[in-house]
UniProtKB/TrEMBL annotation:
Keywords: Acyltransferase, Transferase. PROSITE patterns: GNAT. Its EC number is 2.3.1.267. Belongs to the acetyltransferase family. RimJ subfamily. It is an enzyme of class 2 (transferase). InterPro entries: Acyl_CoA_acyltransferase (IPR016181), GNAT_dom (IPR000182), N-acetyltransferase (IPR051531). Residues 36-207 form the N-acetyltransferase domain. GO terms for cellular component: cytoplasm. It comes from Actinomadura coerulea. The lineage of its organism: Bacteria, Bacillati, Actinomycetota, Actinomycetes, Streptosporangiales. One of its GO terms (molecular function) is protein-N-terminal-alanine acetyltransferase activity. Gene3D superfamilies: 3.40.630.30. This is Ribosomal-protein-alanine N-acetyltransferase.
Amino acid sequence: MPDFSGTIWRSDMRPGNHGTVERLRGWPVTLTEGPVGLRPLRHRDAAVWRELRVRNADWLRPWEPTNPETPLFRSGLGPYISMVHTMRREARHGLALPWVVTHEDDFAGQLTIGAIVWGSARSAQIGYWVDRRVAGRGVIPTAVALAVDHCFFTVGLHRLEANIRPENTASRRVVEKLGFREEGIRRRHLHIDGAWRDHICYALTVEDVPGGLRARWLAERKQAFPRRT
């Protein structure tokens, strides 16, 4: 079972949560598993973030929500700085956990736990993207497993959703390999690539991974890819 001995509770009053909300201190934090890591966004990541976004523009465009504040290509670094300010503010208010995904300490993508709802829901949504150069190496599944365990066993969330376009088979494979259950179609859920797009809702609750998702994922990988002798 996961170890809760080091957890620290705090109370916080925020509009829209109908009173005092108790939640675990879970931010900022860096998480690692082998060559894969999650760490908070930094202002000095701006140049590498822009380089990755421009280089991966065609790879990412069909799957990402239309957002004029963070376009896939722009000559300046303003969109990144704006995004960092917004995400840091949301993290301070307990509404998001914005991470950089690293592979062998290099910036390789992003993973964000957003739209956090406290009160009786204790739910959130998970979104991610990865550099095409490291896709298929287990980077994102490992990062998602780390994030899920942190959200469930440290932050104190109960449910995480991933909403993915039906056509995005690579992203769907990530959550399916990790055991997220499919819960149906959300019609015209997000505006992406010029139109309102349907999404498949995948979800996990803490009861689904009593021993932790990271441990289960690593055990399954070891079984599927035993080390050669």
